[in-house]
Amino acid sequence: MASSATPTPIAAAGPFVLRSLLQGAPLSADGQDGDVKINCVDYLDGNLYVGTTASELLHFFRIPPDPNDPSSSVAFILASRLRPAFAEPAGGLNGSRPGVQQILLLPRVGKACILCNSTVTFYSLPELSPVFGTTQVRNCNWIGGVDLNESIDPGDDRSGAVTILLSLNRRIQVVRIGEDARVVRKIDYAGSTLSVRRDSIACVADSRSYALLDVDRQLKIPLMSISSLDASQPGGPFGQAQNIAGGSDGGLFRSASSATSRPLLAPSDNQAHGRSTSLGGFITGNIRRGDPEDPVFQEPDSPAPSRSPGPVGESSGQAQRDTDKPLPAPPRDPAALLATQAAGTQLPPRTASPRTVSPPKPAPVFLKPHIVSPTSDEFLIVTGTGPLDPGIGIFVNFDGDPTRPTLEFDRYPREVVADGGAPDISSSRPSLGLEEEGYVLASMAREFEDGLHYGLEIQRFDVNVGEGEPEKFWLELSANDSKTMTHSTPLGIRSMLQGEEMQVEEVVERLCQRRFSPFKGITETPTMSLKSLDSRTASSMERQSREKELFDRDLESDEELLPAGWEATRNREGEDFVRSLAKAFSRVAVWAGADIWWAVRNPLLLQLESSLELAVSKDGQIAAQGIETRRQLISVLDTIQGRDAKTELEFMTLGYIRQRTSVLLLARFLDSPEPPFTESETKTMQDSLLESDLDARVVLALLPALRNEIIVNRSGIWIYGGVKSVVESSISKEDGGPGIPSISSLSPNILEFLRHFLSAWRKKKGFGSIPGEVFRTVDASLLLVLLELDQTTPKGQLGRSGTIRKELYDLVDHGVDCFDRAVDLLETYRRLFVLSRLYQRRKMAADVLGTWRRIIEGEEDKGGELGDGEQRVRGYLSNISSQSLVQEYGVWLATRNPKLGVQVFADDKGKAPKFEPNQVVSILKEEAPDAVKYYLEHLVFGKGNTAYVNDLVTYYLDIVITDLQTSPTSRATVTASYEAYRALRPPKPTYRQFLTDNAPPDDEVWQSRLRLLQLLGGDHNYDAVAIRKRIDTSLSALSETRPGSQGAQQQLLVPEAIILDGRTKRHEDALRLLVHLLGDYDSAVLYCLRGGASSSLSGRRDSLPVRETQTRLFRVLLNEFLALDDLNDRVEQTGALLERFGGWFDVLEVLSLIPDGWSVDVTAGFLMAALRRLVRDRHESMLARSLSGSENLRANFDLLVKIDEKGPVIDAGT
């Protein structure tokens, strides 16, 4: 069934509504008598019985609705029009006849008792055929007293009879109705006009007071007067049980205070039951005994009336004269009294509380008694002071004690009905999950500005209202209820024997799921959102959508194809499901004029939605109205907050109300004038949207700037019909301007709301009931919002906790479902670093590195968060396993930053397969030659791989020699360093240490030379001859020589030449350079001590050579010292050398070399040491000879001892 565009408006927010039962009942047979009114109604098994003031009983039969047509309704047809027989009182007028006063249906025995003009007649059900012959009961005020605790189901009956109470003028008859009518007992209680019974306890009333009766034991507890102003009641033992089985004076049985120890409800007296007789015997016995009420059951004076639907004339029989005393005057009709007062006096203005209190009347006041039994163990009775004054409802138990707080009626009611409360056969079955709510409905009149309004005052009786004013609801006829009746027509109300279940189509309309299209002007939902690269400048979606629909099948070929008519089928199934839940049940009938309605429990959904509509109807452009509207909407949310659903329908209702209220709040939040929503109001709206489980795409549909991000599959978005109407209404009010507004048009408070709302929605990921399109939409929208908000963050600032940027990082780091759209958005906003984090989440290493490469090479990144991009690339390459990517970006990095790039290939902890050194050297030589040196340094110094020493030395030489060849400044610096070193006074460091201390830290040439000296002076295998040759060849062009030098190359690379000369055994050249060019005398001495095996410039100590080598080198060094140009240095260094290392020199040789002109003091130390050595040597030799002689004597002695020990040996010979 197609759904309407807008759900049917709801009528009221109260707990009850009126739904038509029968409209325009033919109360008059000929249709001419307009004064005929309805007195009473009852309903059983599809049969509606209506009693009128014309003394007619109308029987209507129910025609059920067509099950194939959900829009069809129940119809009633008139089955018969019955005029019950009655006895005309002597002297009575036709105009004073009350008509059919009461209908009592007894389904357990299939009988009906009709009270018409004080005469009771009996009929069968359902066709109303007379039973028990033509028996009547005259002068009856009331029939009833059926045990409300008994089931009305005939199958539950064991005795086959039903006990009722007949209220006669002087006593109450207890009659058992079955196959016949039998009087069980008589109760001496005169003038009763109303009775309600549970088990054996009946609450009865006469014209002035109430009382409790035990119909089995014939006990009575007098209760309060109906009118508190009635002073005519005789004083008596009020609230005390009295025995009324004997005389009229009935003795005192017990006090009310003993009720708890001896309850009134007790087993029936067997003797009392023994008095039951048959109907015929009862009549005969009464005649014999001369009972003052003789006769009670009488034959009518005329034949039984016709039951045809046509007009029936009145009975022409002559009524018998009543021998009973007349009853007191009946109570005045409160409605008539109100109308009379209204005609004579002007009504006060309408106020919030329309109740007015009239002054007490001096004359006796007769009020109509009201008794109902809301639960199985208590009665509700109503008292008051007058028909215009408030009434008080008092709850009493079977002992007459109050059980709960009283009820207050604004006016003394005309009729009272209880519905709901504890499970009870007398109350209607609760509808739509409100099982525990008990209400009292009172028909009354109220005064308003335009006059009297008749209606129903409704209030709860099962809650303790505390000290506050109890909540009351007013229900009156509206134009939707009746076209002929108005609020000026009195309402009748009655709880019928049986109720009826009915569908609540308003609930079906609102709770059925409907397909929703979020795009304005598109009737069919597209399968995808139409997004451009920049949603802020997206073109009109409406124009593009129809073109895109041509490609939907190809774009979503992976989705299951939907059968033809699937949407109508889903709508129909949804309606059937909701209809199975949205049912109401009522037993309460309300009538006015010729119309009858059900008083149906108003579903919670319609109550709350009526409050929403009332709040929205007050909305306006004035700020105060807007604030009040949002407060009322939030109050509706507060009403259902924390409420646990008891039924499936109530669960759906609470969800629907949350969704609808939240959407209404959101619409006002988006368009709210000043002042904006407070933080608390925004939080309440956000929480409600989340708790309601409303599809986030529906929320985004209300924002044109984000509507472009919505993704929909073939089946579309399905939401409650009532929510759909609100959303579509809001969308239809948008300005139809060109294009789509950009997100920058949204105010900061809206963006902040979206930020929190969408972030919270993402936490629902993993719920199987939510389609993936929702999270793709949520992720794209949240990313767009965060990108817009993050534009104000300072460039380069990293994401600190609690910042927008941190949330942006968390979003992409934890993964987004809308990957392609996220890439487009990040590219649009030029947030390349965030894009790289998105790629990292997907482990797309190539894209990560490519994005960083774009940033490093100068492409704009508005966030500026990359920082040291090259170092970040270096670290990332060690964490990926792709060797090809490591090679590609390692080479790229080595080209930009050779030192850093080499670390990629030198990393031993990387996850990618390792490169062979030869492979790396080959790659770097081809693609990043500047990085080769650094990789070789890693191999040689870091890994100790001496195989590449020659290559590394060559690279160092290239750097140093090239610099010297091309830079005069470098040459001057090197020369100056030699001069500075020579100028130092002993003790001074080695020249290498001197270079290290004075080298610029960032000078590549100086650092390369230091590394070259380290390699040359180390224990490495390299081609010293080739290196020396290259040095000589490369610097041969620099032929500027000076006296005492061997060439410019030796002046520029002196330390290198010394080391190489030592390697090639050219010790004389090495010592000459140390002494004459460097002036490094200490190093020259060390060179001699170490035998020239390695240069003393390296600071390395090897094992000492043989003495002959040392002696030879010291002799060369002595000659070089004697050749120094500076005499002082010559004398000083020669004397020091001879004094410290004189043991390596021959005295005669030294003396021959020392110039004769030198003072003896220069060699005094050497000579003294030489003489000491000679004396020491002579003494040592003498000592050695002596020791050798002693050893010889000792050996001879030992030999003689051994010979003596052995003795002589005789050789006998042979």
Write a structural description.
The chain is α+β, with helices and mostly antiparallel strands and 1214 residues long. It contains 38 helices and 33 strands. Strands 14-15-16-17-18-19 form a 6-stranded antiparallel beta sheet, with no helix packed on it. The longest helix has 47 residues, at 1160-1206. The radius of gyration is 60 Å and the shape is elongated. It comes from Podospora appendiculata.
Task: Please write out the topology.
Blueprint: E1 16-22, E2 38-44, E3 47-52, E4 57-63, E5 75-82, E6 100-106, E7 111-116, E8 119-124, E9 136-137, E10 140-144, E11 162-168, E12 172-177, E13 181-187, E14 194-198, E15 201-205, E16 209-214, E17 219-225, E18 241-243, E19 252-254, H1 270-273, H2 279-289, E20 297-298, H3 334-344, E21 371-375, E22 378-384, E23 391-396, E24 407-409, E25 415-420, E26 438-448, E27 451-460, E28 472-476, E29 492-503, H4 505-511, E30 513-516, H5 541-548, H6 552-555, H7 566-581, E31 583-592, E32 595-601, H8 604-617, H9 623-640, H10 648-671, H11 679-691, H12 696-701, H13 704-707, E33 717-720, H14 721-732, H15 748-762, H16 772-789, H17 804-813, H18 819-828, H19 832-841, H20 845-856, H21 869-877, H22 883-896, H23 898-906, H24 917-927, H25 932-942, H26 949-966, H27 968-983, H28 991-998, H29 1004-1017, H30 1024-1034, H31 1048-1052, H32 1054-1063, H33 1067-1078, H34 1081-1089, H35 1107-1122, H36 1127-1141, H37 1147-1153, H38 1160-1206
Antiparallel strand pairs: 1-32, 2-3, 3-4, 4-5, 6-7, 7-8, 8-9, 9-20, 10-11, 11-12, 12-13, 14-15, 15-16, 16-17, 17-18, 18-19, 21-22, 22-23, 23-24, 25-26, 26-27, 27-28, 29-31, 30-33, 31-32
Helix pairs in contact: 8-9, 8-10, 9-10, 9-11, 10-11, 10-14, 11-15, 15-16, 16-17, 16-18, 17-19, 18-19, 19-20, 20-21, 21-22, 21-23, 22-23, 23-25, 24-25, 25-26, 26-27, 26-29, 29-32, 30-32, 32-33, 33-34, 33-35, 34-35, 35-36, 36-38
